[in-house]
Specification:
The chain is mainly beta. It is built from one helix and 23 strands. The chain has two domains: 160 residues, no CATH class; 89 residues, Thrombin, subunit H (Beta Barrel). β4 and β5 form a beta hairpin. It starts with a strand and ends with a strand. The model has no long low-confidence stretch (mean pLDDT 89).
């Protein structure tokens, strides 16, 4: 086995050597990441559930969709906070996103869960600095490694801020664990980040698929998504229009929640008030112009 990897310090996983394999049944790895078990701690992307009154992660309700596939948050918004978690079996955490609009804070704790704030307890590669009682970036980043350089650190709290402004497609936090690690599993961290979805009223926004459920806050049962129909706008329409021609209205019904991608890439949430052929009348007129080919989705809750 040949591993194309050069680790100049414990905050670096660089590779780049040219390896020519002229043999048979050899294995050439472009890095050592494949030797770890990688667990997802938090993953926010186009598939994240963002409803009108709740979201699957604590602060995702401060995020809106742009054109169905991108996300936008208010500047200086905390997107997630792991809470105090054990990090003894984690070799390194990795943050990755598709845009350079994020900043980190990492709070370190000893075995008694007492805050360690007298020095930088994580590797300083990439721009980490001691800022008050936490380590953080002073510039926006799209990716970063969190490597604890002192065995005194037994627990940590990792906080991700969206500095913006702009849009992004995904922001993820992963944990790299040795494959022979025993006992506590980092997967538990990911499960703890998920929030139960609870609403008092039937959702009036949010892209989900049939089978998705939201608990009713009065304890009487569930709101259930029983249908979704995706199509596109067939003819461009101007702001203020209520009649929306679509390529195919099959599967849509009066009362469905309707998402329309406007020309400025924002998503307008409305509902279906009438259907005639492939023309859908919406309960609220378009808040902006809509281009031909713009995506439309109808979601049905019961």
């Amino acid at each position: 086995m040949l591993i194309d990897n050069f680790v100049s310090n414990n905050g670096n996983l660089a590779s780049g050597a040219i390896v020519t394999d002229n043999g048979q049944e050899n294995m050439v790895l472009a890095g050592i990441e494949t030797l770890y078990r990688v667990a997802s701690v938090v993953s926010i992307d186009r598939n994240s559930v963002i409803l009108d009154g709740c979201a699957e992660y604590a602060n995702m309700k401060n995020v809106v969709r742009s054109g169905f596939d991108k996300l936008v948050a208010q500047s200086y918004t905390v997107l997630f906070e792991t809470g105090i978690m054990p990090v003894g079996e984690v070799e390194r955490f990795k943050f990755e996103a598709d845009s350079k609009q994020f900043r980190y804070r990492v709070y370190c704790y000893d075995e008694n869960r007492s805050l360690l704030n007298d020095k930088l307890y994580i590797n300083g590669i990439g721009g980490w600095k001691q800022l008050g009682d936490y380590a953080g970036f002073q510039t926006n980043v799209s990716d970063a490694w969190v490597v604890f350089s002192d065995k005194t650190v037994k627990y940590a709290n990792i906080v991700l801020y969206y500095y913006g402004p702009g849009s992004f497609e995904y922001a993820r936090l992963k944990a790299y664990v040795r494959t022979n690690a025993a006992g506590w599993s980092v997967d538990d961290i990911g499960r703890r980040q998920r929030r139960p979805l609870v609403q008092a009223a039937k959702p009036v926004k949010g892209l989900v698929h049939p089978g998705h459920t939201v608990a009713k806050s009065d304890g009487t049962g569930l709101w259930i998504c029983v249908g979704r129909a995706d199509t596109i706008v067939s003819t461009a329409q101007s702001s203020g229009t209520a009649a929306l021609p679509v390529a195919d209205a099959a599967g849509m019904s009066v009362g469905d929640v309707l998402a329309v991608c406007l020309e400025d890439r924002t998503t307008q949430w409305t509902s279906v008030s009438a259907i005639s052929g492939n023309t859908v009348t919406i309960s609220e007129t378009l808040a902006g112009n809509v281009a031909a080919g713009a995506p439309v989705a109808a979601i049905r809750w019961v």
